[in-house]
């Protein structure tokens, strides 16, 4: 399906997504003062959701769970995106670090 395709209301997918995100903002704000809690993995899908929230001009924060097993390139990318979202859109990207590293969870025999 092409991005330019219109739905029954005459809107494309981006317009429809933005409309839906805006329509639930009041619910998100009732649950948390930061608004939407958007999980950010650093992948294309979470980037699209984050940018749709920017386009919708809703209140939200991005959250990433650092797994300690991600490729270094992904870790650097997430750090770069944290700076980019803050500088360009004044959006916080919180990186949550685990209490224990994955490699320390399993005993070595």
Number of strands: 3
Written as H for each helix and E for each strand, in order along the chain, the element string is: HHEHEHE
Computed structural class: alpha/beta
Instruction: Report the principal-axis shape.
Output: elongated
Instruction: Please list the strands of the largest sheet in the order they lie side by side.
Output: 1-2-3
Helix content: 40-55%
Radius of gyration: 17 Å
Provide the residue-averaged pLDDT. Answer: 90
| Beta fraction | 5-15%
Distance between the first and last residues' Cα: 52 Å
Largest sheet: 3 strands, parallel
Quaternary organisation: single chain
**Count of helical segments?**
4
Which parts are unreliable, with pLDDT below 50 for 5 consecutive residues or more? none
What does this 3D model show about the protein?
InterPro entries: Rossmann-like_a/b/a_fold (IPR014729). It comes from Clostridium botulinum CFSAN001627. This is PAPS reductase/FAD synthetase family protein. The chain is of the alpha/beta class. It has a domain of 74 residues. It is built from 4 helices and 3 strands, in the order H-H-E-H-E-H-E. It has a 3-stranded parallel β-sheet. Helix 3 links the parallel strand 1 and strand 2. The longest helix has 18 residues. The mean pLDDT is 90.
